[in-house]
Amino acid sequence: MENEEAVQLAKKIIELDLLRDEIWEYYAALTGDDAHKLLRLVQNS
């Protein structure tokens, strides 16, 4: 059972990683050269 749960968790991690990439692409298109700067600003606030 643990192996099945581990496989499901691995699949979820992969899905989240792909979603993160998709969101980043959209975000970067919106913010341009300021993407990293704005992300850090929001992260640190």
How would you describe what is shown here?
- This protein is an all-alpha fold and 45 residues long.
- It is 87% helix and 0% strand.
- The protein has two helices and no strands.
- The longest helix has 30 residues, at 2-31.
- The model has no long low-confidence stretch (mean pLDDT 96).
Features:
single chain, 45 residues, mainly alpha, 2 helices, elongated
* Coarse shape: elongated
Oligomeric assembly: single chain
What structural class do the secondary elements suggest? mainly alpha
Main pleated-sheet profile: none
Report the β-strand fraction as a percent range. Answer: under 5%
Low-pLDDT stretches are none
Number of helices: 2
Q: How would you spell out the order of helices and strands?
A: HH
Measured as a percent range, the helix fraction is over 70%
The end-to-end span amounts to 41 Å
Radius of gyration (Å):
15 Å
Indicate the mean pLDDT. Answer: 96
Number of strands: 0
Topology:
Layout: H1 2-31, H2 35-43
Describe the structure concisely:
The protein has helices at 2-31, 35-43. It is an all-alpha fold and 45 residues long. The chain is elongated and about 45 Å long.
